[in-house]
Specification:
single chain; 346 residues; alpha/beta; Rossmann fold; 2 domains; 6-stranded parallel beta sheet; 13 strands; 17% strand
């Protein structure tokens, strides 16, 4: 390891998200590599709660919607950078990048969300860009950024204890994700209806917290499709793996976004076969034979149906997915690449 760094992680969003989860894993990786990480985040935010829980120093700054308080945020960050002897800033949003530019310190821009990036004037302060998927890398390349300035570092995962499931009918097909139109829950139910009409011996399970749609709406959709007795709605679950381990087949039915897909990585780590739409970063996790165009319920039903018809194929695909998670997405590889990117930027 090179000289230990003091890194200021600026994350100005209040909620927990894929962007935030990536920032948290990055902080753990940097600390494990011997570096010091200090968080600057809004009061009451998920980042503040994470920092307090995990023992990271943290300071409050105005949130991203408080544009009128930008000068106050800058003054606050300058004081933090001075008092904490900060060497480099990790900027997790565009506003954080602007603030880091005004600090005059080297910047690592960390991008783990689907918002379209821009290579504006503040990018002159960016020493290196870390992106969480090749999908996001392509977004940056379309802005004119050179590939040499970008590191694709996908999150790692520690697979849960192996819990092989003997597939037997009725097979359990699961979708885990927040209830949002972009996640394709209605598409999932339409594919389920097609399979059940064709005689599939299966149950269809949905878990995740309510966002822009409600469970009552999904229940009504299932009833309209005539499949309500075969659809099970679990609500929000604590952690992904108990739900995933209870399923025989995983599905991601997203219609868009998915610049980073933690759910895809978790299905792989759980050792379950995964059928997915081809949006965003999903082709980076899911093999071509199990990808379908977004919005195509018939294609989704056909892929799920292949697995339902062949328990041996279910087991083989699940084992292959777990082996890939262990081989290609290890926390050690994520940590090594993350530390190297920050050390190289300084």
């Amino acid at each position: 390891m090179k000289q230990p760094l003091r890194i200021l992680s600026v994350i100005d969003i209040p909620w927990n998200s894929g962007l935030a989860a990536y920032a948290f894993d990055q902080a753990r990786a940097l600390r494990a590599g011997g570096h010091g990480v200090v968080f600057a985040c809004p009061e009451g935010s998920a980042a503040e709660a994470f920092a307090a829980r995990e023992g990271f120093s943290h300071y409050s700054i105005p949130g991203r919607k408080a544009y009128h308080r930008l000068p106050l945020a800058l003054l606050r960050l300058r004081a933090i950078a001075r008092d904490e002897r900060i060497d480099i800033v990790a900027a997790h949003t565009g506003r954080a990048q602007t603030l880091a530019y005004l600090l005059g310190l080297p910047v690592v821009r960390v991008k783990a969300d689907a918002k379209k990036p821009s290579a504006g004037f503040t990018f002159s302060a960016v020493a290196s860009t870390i992106v969480a998927s090749a999908c996001i890398q392509d977004m940056y390349l379309r802005t004119g950024l050179t590939p040499a300035k970008i590191s694709v570092i996908r999150q790692g995962i520690t697979p849960p204890a192996a819990l092989p499931r003997v597939p037997r009918p009725p097979y359990r097909v699961g979708l885990l994700g927040r209830l949002d139109l972009v996640k394709g829950h209605v598409l999932f139910l339409e594919a389920a209806a097609e399979l059940l009409r064709a005689g599939a011996r299966a149950e269809f399970h949905v878990a995740g917290y309510e966002a822009n749609i409600k469970y009552e709406g999904l229940r009504s959709t299932a009833k309209e499709l005539g499949i309500e007795k075969d659809v099970f709605l679990h609500g929000k679950v604590d952690g992904p793996f108990d739900f995933m381990n209870s399923c025989d087949i995983g599905v991601i039915a997203s219609l868009g976004s998915e610049a980073v897909s933690r759910a895809a990585l978790e299905w792989l780590a759980a050792g379950r076969p995964l059928v997915s739409t081809s949006v965003g970063s999903l082709p980076e996790y899911v093999g071509t034979p199990w990808l379908v165009p977004p919005g195509d319920a018939a294609a989704l039903a056909e892929k799920i149906g292949r697995l339902l018809a062949d328990p041996d194929l279910q087991r083989a695909e699940g084992a292959a997915n777990r082996a890939r998670a262990e081989r290609d997405f290890s926390p050690a590889a994520f940590a090594a690449a993350t530390c190297a990117a920050f050390e190289g930027a300084v």
